[in-house]
Amino acid sequence: MKKLVISIVLVNLLAACASKPVETAPPTAPKGEEHKVEATTGGATTGGATEATAAAPAQTEVDPLNDPASILAKRSVYYPFDVAAVQDADKPVVQAHAKYLSEHSNRKVRLEGNCDERGSNEYNLGLGQRRADGVKKMLELGNASANQLESVSYGEEKPRASGHDEASWSQNRRTDLIYAK
Amino acid sequence: MKLRILQSVVGLLLLAQASMASAVLNIEIIGAGEHQIPVAIVPFGGDSKLAQSINEVVTGDLQRSGLFRLVDPTGKSPHEPAEVSYPDWQVRGAEALAIGTVAAQTNGRIEARFRLLDVVKQTELIGQAVSSSENQTRAIGHRIADLIYEKLTGDKGVFSTRIAYVNRQGQKFRLIVADSDGYNEQVVLSHNEPIMSPAWSPDGSHLAYVSFETGHAAVYVQSLYTNQRTVLANFRGSNSAPAWSPDGKQLAIVLTRDGSSQIYLIRPDGSGIRRITFSGAIDTEPNFSPDGQYLLFTSDRGGSAQIYRMSVDGGPEQRITFGEGSNFSPRHSPDGKSFVFAHLINGKFHVAIQDFQSGQITIVTEGGWEKKPSFAPNGKLILFASEARGRGILATVSSDGRVKQLMFTQSGDAREPMWGSNF
Questions:
Q1: Do B269 and B136 share a structural domain?
Q2: Which of A84, A129, B84, B119 could form a disulfide with B78 if both were Cys (CB 3.0 to 4.6 A apart)?
Q3: Which residues of chain B make contact with A153, given a CB cutoff of 8 A?
Q4: What ipTM goes with this model?
């Protein structure tokens, strides 16, 4: 009986070695949770930015991006169900960011499209990409340069709210503008 | 009588066993098949000495299929044909009887010798030995259940097949492959960014999937034997929805590098990329027909998401779902005569099957958050993502809608399931 137990353990050990899952390095992109801040002090939300980098040395001139009273403090635009076009109510927000980007060519922004859960995950990945690309196009029309912009989609994978109701869904149908430090 | 020794099952599963034999699952069965075959399974001689009872696996498999009524063997325990008194089993209403013995071999392997007997005709239907390493006794049980299932129903069993799914727990995402009953988990990939859309290679050796670990959706292909993986597609925007051709020589994927989500073909080594849809709409979730000639896919080119069909060579694209609601995630049945998909109507997702020839749609679930259906390799069961008690779970339904089972994994949400296509 003792022998049996020992050999089982050995087999398990061997097997455990054989199939160590792939553990990838911590992702470089920010986590969804970090995006939830709509009005931040400096848009320090990219590249695994930490609190320390967010509190980086202040610039001598005031960056309007850091002004919580500015329209630039709005970093999300929202959509009706299964719609990817920027809504009229949100156009001034996108246009203000376009103007800011055109005047600050060193600034880069990441556009993250998101969806509610009503659709397949893959369909929503496509819809979220279309939302992000729509914002990107509008920023380009406002003279932001393509090399300042990156558009990605999380589909329904990173919901801000988790309920199966319109109150949650309306928050999840959005594109976030995430400024790189 | 010929006793064949099968050692087939086990090589593939060695790896699988590793992560844990433990994933405690709670499985609930709802409904029953129209005609249940009464079968008695006598616990094999020696079964009680095993750490993992083979009897428990065999009876669990057969019961979950909904096609069998398990006749209570209490009081009788024959292990050899000479010990069987057929009238005892006729009285209990059994039509078939499984008996056998199981023992550790000198080489440390476990071997079960079992027979399936026809109680009415008093003949032997199967006599076979199945063996495995000591920590693989569940595989022996699944193999025996497959043999019984095939002999008594005429269809191949799928108890030894594998499934893949994504487990989400807070910020943690894990890509998991497991036995078809959810046990025997192997963690393929684990990190804090979303994982989506696992797709089995036709021989079951590789998984393609979507991972967001670089900050956007990219497609990877990973060996389940060596865990080595390669980046299949990592263009700007989103790279997603991998689907293998039946010969394994190419995949269909979805890219947004040229605008909206469009379908492309690519070889498994990442070469030979070629765009095949040009709609400007969202074209996604491609799935090859079993003969490799056609693709089903989801598109919103008509206004709402519907299912379309096209030739792999880029032939005409034809809409094949109509009516109210929208439709997603098409998958061909193994015989190519129908397809399963997620049907969204009045705010609820249902699993539905459409027959190619008649166009008739059969909705096989009552509706809820039922997404991402895929057929078992025998076409008799459908695996899908569902929700119960506030958690994402795996569920199966028989293709006639009669038997449903809910599989509660240990913790977190189960998402994006995909049944392996090979037996």
A1: no
A2: B84
A3: 216-217, 237-238, 256
A4: 0.91
